[in-house]
Amino acid sequence: MIKRIAIDGYKCFSKFDFTLDVPSFVFFSGRNGSGKSTLFEVLALVRDVAGRGIPLVADDGTFLVMGSTVTRWSEKVEAQTFEIETAIDGLNYRYRLVVDAKTPDHTPRVHQESLECEGKTVFSCQDGAVSLLNSRGQKKVGFHVDWSK
């Protein structure tokens, strides 16, 4: 069950934080352009990038993040942040993804990515350096990955 979604710098969302306090059905209602579809677009985006390893730049050169998806009416957006908190089998998880375009050609990259279980970091990535941690928070494995995924 999704418990919380936070989005910053993506399309119509700036410092958006939505918490679901009780397990129930949620009905989204609002005017056109208020972000209903964009909220589900973000869920699909995180699923595709985190779960399926889809690159931030499509084969045709279009950007999945940054570029045209930046919140235009907000102050200068240097990064887009996505956080999802869930409860699965009685355990609480928090996934965080921060992307930016601080590359020479302004191509989006994964700046930070992390997964926590019950408040303990299991996986973290900072600028392409990945760390896998044990239940005591000690780094056990480290390696580098492509920043575009």
Structure, explained:
The model has no long low-confidence stretch (mean pLDDT 88). The protein has one helix spanning 36-52; strands at residues 2-8, 16-19, 79-88, 91-100, 109-117, 120-126, 129-133, 139-144. It is mainly beta and 149 residues long. The longest helix is centred in the N-terminal third of the chain and has 17 residues, at 36-52.
Q: Summarize model confidence as the mean pLDDT.
A: 88
The largest β sheet comes out as: 8 strands, antiparallel
Number of helices: 1
User: Tell me, what's the shape?
Assistant: flat
Structural class: mainly beta
Write a short abstract of this structure.
The protein is mainly β.
What tags apply to this protein structure?
39% strand, 149 residues, eight-stranded antiparallel sheet, mainly beta, flat
Q: What are the SSEs and their pairings?
A:
Layout: E1 2-8, E2 16-19, H1 36-52, E3 79-88, E4 91-100, E5 109-117, E6 120-126, E7 129-133, E8 139-144
Antiparallel strand pairs: 1-2, 1-3, 3-4, 4-5, 5-6, 6-7, 7-8
